[in-house]
Design goal:
Blueprint: E1 4-6, E2 77-78, E3 86-89, H1 93-97, H2 100-104, E4 110-118, H3 126-143, E5 150-153, E6 162-166, H4 172-180, E7 183-187, H5 192-205, E8 215-221, E9 235-242, H6 251-268, H7 305-316, E10 325-326, H8 343-357, H9 363-378, E11 391-398, E12 416-423, H10 438-458, H11 464-480, E13 488-489, H12 498-503
Parallel strand pairs: 7-8
Antiparallel strand pairs: 1-4, 2-3, 3-6, 4-9, 5-6, 8-9, 10-13, 11-12
Helix pairs in contact: 3-4, 3-6, 7-11, 9-10
Length: about 500
């Protein structure tokens, strides 16, 4: 890493194509007490699911109108108020995480915390480190302008849904001011998570909360003041704060790339050099709308598309009716407990899973199984609901594998599909009696069911992304227009364990 040694590295690489890492350790929802799709359904119902009910509706029963997509609605076009600004209507997950009030309070914001230690370099201070990151941000934005998109509300017939805009700089000084105002340095004894909580409280206390920037960065160190030299070995915390409207879990790559850029700039002593970019040219490199670059176009979807679409939408609508954890309507504080393991221990865990369950299993399957078992422990199902209580557990899926685009830069923005793991008669999946091997047996059975559902949905290669985009639009309207407060939270998965190892298995 040159002059800065990264302590938390991306040692686990070679990602699989389809699992999204939107829920990796970078994630830390500002208000994570309830599932987004649960917020318009208030019943802790134990009624049967309809996952496999794809037959025509019975007489007198209206059919669920499947949402449709028109790519022309979501393409880039000039803003009606400023022709130099490009905009497009939010689509898919963007619509869900872009609901106006929720976005303003950071309901879906997430973060990544990287810990660095200063290497062999002299004269390094927090302000000098900031200048290096300012330069790195300008380089990154010119190459990939989508990282600087933002939301505006008020143009859609649905006032809660945003347009996504990009505004090019008019001068080099404006460009430098943007990057400078996105990066903060602190000489403090507080940790990055504590600084984030402090920032969150100030934001929520505002008379009119405002949506977060696309990305803000807090660089901190436990030194006397900002001008104090950072001696070799000094720990430097860097907190990356993301607005989910402009990013998904692939933002974790950006954090590592930006650190590498800043390190190279420091090595070359170029932190004070302002790049002479021709701002405005970068607009041509904005991410193309997702519906225009799908591997299989909307006009070429097969005959089973509607059947699969109805199955996934019906199952997603069951999430809020699932057995879950009780919640209140009080706003909670963000909390994340992190456990770090080295590569050697990671390999041991992955090997143990494969040895017990089979070569095609990984820690993601076991992690999801453990989540279900933990739910049954913390909120046991009463006898009156043992035959009927069910769980539909949603999971994010990386949609980039369903895209045909060829790119020189990563698509960091939302390209997310979705899937569901279903557990009918949930009580039957728990630990049986006093069997000393009961926990292991239950986890074995749950992991096999998890893998079965993962494999099914990930196998819908032609359908999953367009279905998910349409369904996210549909659900965003339901969530935004409902005043209902959820009574339960159906867990998504083991956020810090499951998707991390499923998407990034240890290198062998």
């Amino acid at each position: 890493m040159g002059s800065i040694d990264q302590q938390t590295t991306d040692a686990l690489k070679a990602p699989r194509r389809m699992l999204d890492d939107d829920s990796l350790p970078i994630s830390g929802s500002e208000t994570s007490h309830a599932s987004p799709m649960a917020s318009f359904i208030t019943s802790n119902s134990s009624s049967q699911s309809v996952l496999d009910d794809t037959s025509p509706p019975k007489a007198g029963k209206p059919a669920l109108q499947l949402p449709t997509l028109d790519p022309s609605e979501f393409r880039w076009h000039p803003s009606p108020t400023d022709s130099s600004v490009l905009q497009r209507k939010a689509n898919g997950v963007e619509a869900l995480v872009g609901i106006k009030d929720a976005n303003a309070i950071g309901a879906y914001d997430f973060y990544n915390n990287i810990v660095l230690r200063v290497g062999d370099i002299s004269g390094l201070t927090l302000p000098r480190l900031k200048r290096a990151f300012v330069r790195a941000m300008l380089d990154a934005r010119f190459e990939n302008p989508s990282i600087a998109c933002y939301g505006v509300w008020g143009q859609n017939k649905e006032p809660h849904l945003p347009h996504i805009q990009y505004r090019p700089f008019k001068s080099h000084s404006e460009a430098r001011a943007w990057a400078h105002n996105s990066i903060f340095v602190r000489a403090t004894t507080l940790t990055s998570p504590e600084l984030r909580v402090e920032r969150t409280k100030r934001r929520r206390a505002a008379a009119v909360p405002q949506p977060a920037n696309s990305l803000d960065i807090i660089i901190s160190a436990d030194v006397a003041n900002e001008r104090t030299p950072l001696e070799p070995g000094t720990k430097v915390d860097i907190m990356f704060l993301f607005n989910h409207l402009s990013w998904d879990g692939k933002a974790r790559y950006f954090t590592s790339e930006l650190v590498q850029r800043a390190t190279e700039i420091l090595d070359k002593g170029e932190e004070n050099v302002v790049p002479a970019y021709r701002w405005g040219e970068e607009k041509a490199r904005l991410d193309p709308p997702i519906l225009d670059v799908m591997l299989v176009g909307l006009d070429k979807l097969g005959p089973d598309y509607e059947v699969v679409h109805r199955k996934l939408l019906n199952s997603q609508l069951q999430v809020g009716l699932s057995w879950g954890l009780p919640v209140t309507n009080n706003q909670g504080d963000p909390l994340q407990v992190r456990h770090c393991m080295n590569i050697k221990d990671s390999r041991k865990i992955a090997d143990a899973v494969r040895a017990r369950l089979g070569s095609k299993y990984n820690i993601g399957h076991l992690g999801h199984a453990a989540t279900v078992l933990a739910l049954l422990k913390h909120n046991p199902i009463p006898a009156s609901a043992r035959d009927t209580a069910f769980l539909f557990s949603p999971l994010p899926v990386d949609g980039r594998g369903y895209l045909s685009e060829e790119r020189k830069t990563r698509r960091y923005g939302n390209a997310q599909a979705s899937a569901i793991v279903e557990f009918q008669k949930l009580a039957s999946w728990g630990i049986k009696g006093e069997d000393p091997e009961g926990v292991k047996v239950a986890l074995d059975n749950l992991a096999k069911k998890v893998k079965e559902d993962y494999d099914y949905w990930l196998g819908q290669s032609d359908y999953l992304l367009p279905i998910s985009v349409a369904n996210h639009n549909y659900v965003s309207n339901l969530v935004a227009t409902s005043n209902a407060v959820p009574e339960v939270h159906a867990p998504v998965s083991t956020w810090l364990l499951c998707f991390y190892y499923l998407a990034f298995p240890p290198v062998r």
